[in-house]
Amino acid sequence: MRASLSTLPGRIGIVIAVALLVAWSLGPIYWSLVTSLTPPLHLLGTPSLWPQQISFEHYAKLFGATSMSQGNAVQSVWPQFSAALTNSLITSGLATVVTVAIAAFGAYAFVRLEFPGRDLLFVAVVATLAIPAYTVMIPLYRLMISLKLIDTYTGITLIYVSAFLPLALWLMRSVYQAMPISLEEAAWLDGAGRVYTLVYIVLPLSAPGLIASAILTFLNAWGQFMVPLVFSPTLATKPLTVLIPEFVTRNYIDFGLMNAAGILAIIPPVLLVLFLNRYLVSGLMAGATK
Amino acid sequence: MPSSYPRRNRTPGELALAAALVVPIVVVMGGLVFWPLATSVLASFYRIDPMKPGTPFVGLANYGALLADGNVQTAWLNTFAYVAIAVVLETIGGLGAALLLNRVKHGRQWLLAITVLPWCLPPVVNAIVWMWIFNPSYGVLNHVLLWLGVIDARKVWFNDQATALFLISLVHVWRMMPLTAVILLAALQSIPRDLYEAARLDGAGPIKSFRLVTLPLISSGLAIALSQSTVFAFNLFDEAWILSGSSLDTRSVIIQVYLTAFQNLRFSNGMALSILAMLASLLVSLIYVLRVYRETRYD
């Protein structure tokens, strides 16, 4: 098996396979970027691999006060777009902070502290990973209505936390389990309390695990569609994922605008993958294989 | 109780701390998952419909109505098609990608980042990007296939049910394949090198050593990957909803749940259907796990 690697056909095969994998993964994103930079009229012609003329017209529709559409000046979508962008950032950010905080402290109790029903509770919480979100959505909708939490940041954040907590808890528990207890014991011998040890010794050492849980939670929350479709009916909390498809329901489908908005919506995930890829992959592996 | 924890004595302080750390989990999961789940199961035996007075107990009538409903049957068939196509393609593609990533030495981190990227993007945006690619008049797919001579006229892809189901599955596979690849890569990396060495010394070629060493040793990873793909494909909503809305040709069970509950307001029917969908996806993934584990045992 090793021998075939060093032969020339073997190498060429690998290069072709890598090229295919890269084209498959990046091709659609590249195409979306090209589309978003192509002048509207050129979109109706023969597509070319590279835009013959770069235009920021589609982005101007998102950011400008007014823009031209089929020869008429129209109100731009900036007010809706900026509100949805803010909503996406706030709900995903809040969900991430709350989820990781609860998981970071809670998982510690599941690993280092002893209390009745510990294992049962952990198994029950993690088992909900296998329950699809929509199974609880209808009662949740009625509950949120009675609590007056529909279309509020609190409501959306709570739902996200309940959906993403099991995975974060699972990850943080495996992080703590892999950590030698001797460090903590040394601190206890020095008279440090449990809470002090957790906050000043355990948490800093768990930084990679915390980052991995935060990335996974953020990406999950950022991409959510069905939950906000039901629980965020207005721009008070409506995120980008719900707003962008609504560009379709105008009298025609503005693909340039949708691709431009899509490209802006994928900037945060792309940045996370570019800079924190290591943590993301280790989190996915730990979350998937243990 | 203390005797069951012989190593350390539990102090009242420890118990209080544990309670403080765990209470948020109990409250959030209890209030927003377990209680609604129990309500869902219970309510599926009642008639809950804002358009009709009262909420009488109806037993299995909601489930019976689902079995008789032609739209629901179509949605099930569509979902099975999604699951079959997605699981097969994700497993083959993901295994290929994992084997490749396991071999690449230089720049593996970057190739991994590129591979994982589609999984990180909002499914809605993915679906929109592909919708433009599939566009009948201006989409790049028609142009490329015309140019290659595969087709001789532009196709309206979503006019044909089989094609529509396949293309929606393809968008789903584009997003979910990275997860399979990462799970299998983790499994591949846990195989000790010297096993391959031993297989080679015994005269096993690449294919034989893949079948005799790699496959058995990644089977538990494979079981996890298969059940993940299955559960996610059963839950397919975003891609189908964006690409063709409530169209019956491509309607998944979850879209049917959404339409029943949130557009027709037949809450209890929706809950019954969502419970059936949950049971189905759990059952199918359980079958994989059991089968794969049994096969490894006997090897």
Question: What would your notes on this structure say?
Answer:
The complex is a heterodimer of chains A (290) and B (299). Chain A is mainly α and 290 residues long. Chain A folds into two domains: 2-78, no CATH class; 80-289, Orthogonal Bundle (MetI-like fold), CATH 1.10.3720.10. Chain A is 71% helix and 3% strand. Chain A is built from 14 helices and two strands, in the order H-H-H-E-E-H-H-H-H-H-H-H-H-H-H-H. In chain A, strands 1-2 form a two-stranded antiparallel ribbon. In chain A, helix 2 crosses helix 13 (255-265), helix 4 runs antiparallel to helix 10 and helix 8 runs antiparallel to helix 9. Chain A is globular and about 75 Å long. In chain A, 44% of the residues are buried. With 299 residues, chain B is mainly alpha-helical. Chain B has one domain (64-298): MetI-like fold (Orthogonal Bundle). Chain B is 75% helix and 0% strand. Chain B contains 13 helices and no strands. The interface between A and B is large, with 91 and 97 residues.
Order of helices and strands of chain B: HHHHHHHHHHHHH
In whole angstroms, the N-to-C terminal distance of chain B is: 42 Å
Strand content of chain B: under 5%
Integer count of domains of chain A: 2
Return Rg of chain B in Å: 24 Å
* Low-confidence blocks of residues of chain A: none
- The CATH superfamily of the largest domain in chain A appears as MetI-like
State the helical fraction of chain A.
Answer: over 70%
**Which stretches of chain B are low in confidence, meaning pLDDT under 50 for 5 or more residues running?**
1-7
| Anisotropy-based shape of chain B | globular
Task: Give the mean pLDDT of chain A.
Answer: 85
Distinct helical segment count of chain A: 14
- How would you sum up the global shape of chain A? globular
What tags apply to this protein structure?
heterodimer; A: 290 residues; mainly alpha; MetI-like fold; two-stranded antiparallel ribbon; 14 helices; B: 299 residues; 13 helices; 0% strand; globular; MetI-like (chain A); ABC transporter permease (chain A); BP-dep_ABC_trans_perm (chain A)
